[in-house]
């Protein structure tokens, strides 16, 4: 008989996952671990086999309902491996479940401090007067930059990171801390690369090959850095190490046939009409958001539609040969070192 995660209380693992994410310090892998820990005590499992089955079902539910399940998958597989390997000599299974739940919460609490360890490791590679290029928004990268700012003079370029504009969030945090920062167009990465000392990015996951999955645009940044002979450093907490082995962008779990697919226009006339409406509807806004009515339609700012955005990838894969080093709470690793660590991590 398969154990059910939902008891009389109507436990919904995805809702619980979303609630944990309300805490800005909790990343998706940690939210997944906390959700599975909560699921243990909610489960009616009476044996270890049933419990592991219930946790696997819960992980599949999280994956099914998430647009980008990559990083939460890393947390799920880490916690399920822990449960599977946990010594269970107790005759009272209810007590064992409570112990597992407590261990999961304890790990998540301790894991928040991993960013401080990574920031300290990265500090040794950040020289005074360094000019750094980063991409989008990353909690661990932000922590590393703020930590470096305490003792060193640094300046930061951050990409705008469209379509969500998460680079602006990084910009606001850095300027508020007094760090000189400039927002760079995603299309201007090659233009600015000669001005920087190195690239520093976060991660959605670091995979078995030692490659990196991160917000889309990271791969092209790594390619340009390699061509310009600039170090490309990735920062990743160990709970983002993921047993996944993509060979290309199209092996990622987030890829689907709709991404970068072509849309056949219904008619030339209709398309022209829609383009005209879009041009007339577009407007240029000032920094305060006020509309400038005098802007000609040909100069008005244009934005992608939600349908067009949906046809684009949210993350991309960066090959290990493009990555100089991976800074993690378990140490400073080469991409090959990540592979070796992953093997030992899940070997028990």
Strand proportion, as a percent range, falls in 5-15%
Taking the sheet with the most strands, its summary is:
7 strands, mixed
Poorly predicted regions: 275-291
Return the string of H and E elements. HHHHHHEHEHEHEEEHEEHHEEEH
Which secondary-structure class do the elements indicate? alpha/beta
Indicate the topology.
Layout: H1 13-20, H2 28-42, H3 48-65, H4 70-85, H5 93-111, H6 114-123, E1 130-134, H7 139-149, E2 154-159, H8 166-176, E3 181-184, H9 189-192, E4 198-201, E5 205-207, E6 212-215, H10 218-227, E7 232-235, E8 241-242, H11 268-281, H12 306-310, E9 315-318, E10 325-328, E11 331-333, H13 335-345
Parallel strand pairs: 1-2, 1-4, 2-3, 4-7, 5-8, 7-10
Antiparallel strand pairs: 5-6, 6-9, 10-11
Helix pairs in contact: 1-2, 2-3, 2-4, 2-5, 3-4, 6-7
Structure overview:
The protein has helices at 13-20, 28-42, 48-65, 70-85, 93-111, 114-123, 139-149, 166-176, 189-192, 218-227, 268-281, 306-310, 335-345; strands at 130-134, 154-159, 181-184, 198-201, 205-207, 212-215, 232-235, 241-242, 315-318, 325-328, 331-333. The chain has 348 residues and is α/β, with parallel strands linked by helices. A hairpin with a 2-residue loop joins β10 (325-328) and β11 (331-333).
